Amino acid sequence: MKKIVSLFIIIAAALAITVFANAGPGCCLSQQRTPLATAAPEKVTTLHVEGMTCGACATALKQVLKKTDGVRDARVSYEEKSAIVTYDPAKVTPEKIVRAISETLPTYKATVVK
Hints:
Elements: H1 2-21, E1 43-50, H2 55-67, E2 71-77, E3 82-87, H3 94-104, E4 109-112
Antiparallel strand pairs: 1-3, 1-4, 2-3
């Protein structure tokens, strides 16, 4: 019986060492604390876009917007002739977004509404 108890204690100790040795910075067993990441503030701008003739145009515009550095999200409506763009103001401005549209899709005319 003593051998079984001793064996159990050794196995438990080995498991505990393994668990604590593998505890990384994201593990709940780790005592390290990492500062919370602060998200950069986002801004939203609305663009009026002339020149779209169909739903595929809206899709093409959305792809251009999402590839623009600093743009985090874009919702484009062919019916409303508009784009609502969420962006990082540290990386891009509404004017640069409009410029990216005119350079990539020259038949579209975008203007900042707000």
